[in-house]
Specification:
The chain has 193 residues and is mainly α. Helix content is 68%, strand content 0%. It starts with 8 loop residues before the first helix and ends in a 7-residue tail after the last helix.
Length: 193
């Protein structure tokens, strides 16, 4: 699981265990006893670091951070190749850890209090980097400026996430050709504009 660095090893193990159990068992099943056991601690130790299960899980979600370097490739100047690498990295990230993101998202939709008023900084950092990728492509004249970088990021990543959601949750055997997705995304979006 991807968590921001936590200097306190006890806290780090509690946060890791909490996020794992939130994903595996959901909010109700991620009991403080189970979290403490997974972290190799007692509940007393857990409560020395977190006042409640909600505070612990909220902190774990806030610490969640996909690895930026693995998601956003460096710009090579070849837009189609860079988009293919970005899409491949994104698909790999979503599929890693047994579909962590696919299982985490529904739980966060059921318990929005775990996210709070703002997205987790680690997730925002990755999303900002993806938006930055599209902004750089526009600035270099490789993509039209008719759409905002945010819209481009959503337009590119949305179908990838939907494909994994449909395939992962509903087990629909959807064929997916990433190269075809990249070519279709680029249709009408190339060049200055």
């Amino acid at each position: 699981m991807y968590l921001l660095s936590e200097p306190n090893p006890t806290r780090a193990s509690i946060l890791q265990a909490g996020l794992e159990l939130l994903v595996e068992r959901g909010y109700k099943g991620a009991t403080t006893r189970a979290i403490a056991e997974r972290a190799g601690l007692t509940e007393v130790t857990l409560f020395r670091h977190f006042e409640s299960k909600e505070a612990l899980l909220k902190a774990a979600v806030a610490q969640f951070s996909p690895p930026l370097a693995e998601v956003v490739p460096p710009d090579s100047g070849d837009l189609e190749a860079d988009l293919y690498r970005l899409g491949h990295s994104y698909l790999t990230l979503i599929q890693e850890n047994g579909g962590l993101l696919l299982r985490l998202v529904p739980e966060l939709l059921r318990h929005p209090e775990l996210v709070g008023g703002e997205p987790p900084p680690g997730v925002m950092r990755v999303f900002s980097a993806v938006i930055g990728f599209f902004a750089r492509q526009q600035a270099a004249g490789r993509l039209h400026r008719a759409e905002s970088p945010q819209q481009l990021a959503l337009g590119f990543a949305g179908p990838l996430f939907a494909r994994l959601m449909l395939g992962g949750i509903w087990h629909l055997g959807l064929e997916f050709d990433l190269k075809a997705h990249v070519r279709g995304f680029l249709e009408g979006r190339r060049g200055n504009g």
